[in-house]
Amino acid sequence: MSNPIFLALDVPQIDAGKALLQKVKSHIGGVKLGLEFFCAHGHHGVHEIAHVGLPIFLDLKLHDIPNTVAGAMQAIHVLEPAIVTIHAAGGRAMMEDAKAAAAENTKVVAVTMLTSLDERDLARTGVNGSAHDQVMRLAELAHDAGLDGIVCSGQEVKAVHKQWKDGFFVVPGLRPGGKATGDQKRVVTPRQARDDGASVLVIGRPISRAEDPEAAARAIEATL
Ligand SMILES: O=c1ccn([C@@H]2O[C@H](COP(=O)(O)O)[C@@H](O)[C@H]2O)c(=O)[nH]1
């Protein structure tokens, strides 16, 4: 992918999303549609955004029993997504069945540990140990299940890339200043994530909530 930036289009209205895309489309390589957008607008909304002509990343974070996730993957074939997310915590069988059910040209990547979590949050879910170890463990499981790659923070991507040379790595939790803000806890700059092996840089609010989204996207692109 030439421009690795995927804009997280976390907006409640299709028209607002399309207007934002018109402003920034020459500085991004794709669009990420997540739960907020998909729950509000479903297939119709995805078709509308696809008219802009950029690759579509459906960040649905599927997590259920294998049969249900496989059915959901089949139901989105028609949308021709470039990338779809599932949760690695769903287990190996779920990941295998999701990959088998996905369209041939769709990359299936597993969320390891959300970038909004730190080690204290992890411990509260009953998992003791570092974020690094948790990501490495789930990355190995995703690899063994035959997935294309994983979602992790920029703090782990270098280590994962070392173990999984041809993996496809999606990195959200990116802030141009490199400082954790709001709900994102494991944060790096877009440049660091790219240098450490990220395939896709997911960036939302630093662009969408900027006073001038076009200038913000251009400035981030210039750092890469
Ligand atoms: O671990 C994860 C997985 C997915 N996301 C998604 O990425 C964007 C980030 O948006 P920002 O506004 O740049 O924080 C958002 O759509 C999340 O759902 C993530 O942040 N962390």
UniProtKB/TrEMBL annotation:
Presence of keyword Iron-sulfur: no
GO molecular function, one term: orotidine-5'-phosphate decarboxylase activity
Pathway linked to the protein: Pyrimidine metabolism; UMP biosynthesis via de novo pathway; UMP from orotate: step 2/2
PROSITE patterns per UniProt: OMPDECASE
Active site: K61 (proton donor)
Catalytic activities: orotidine 5'-phosphate + H(+) = UMP + CO2
Similarity section: Belongs to the OMP decarboxylase family. Type 1 subfamily.
Quaternary data: Homodimer.
Described purpose of this protein according to its UniProt entry: Catalyzes the decarboxylation of orotidine 5'-monophosphate (OMP) to uridine 5'-monophosphate (UMP).
Record protein name field: Orotidine 5'-phosphate decarboxylase
Organism (species): Altererythrobacter arenosus
Lineage of the organism: Bacteria, Pseudomonadati, Pseudomonadota, Alphaproteobacteria, Sphingomonadales
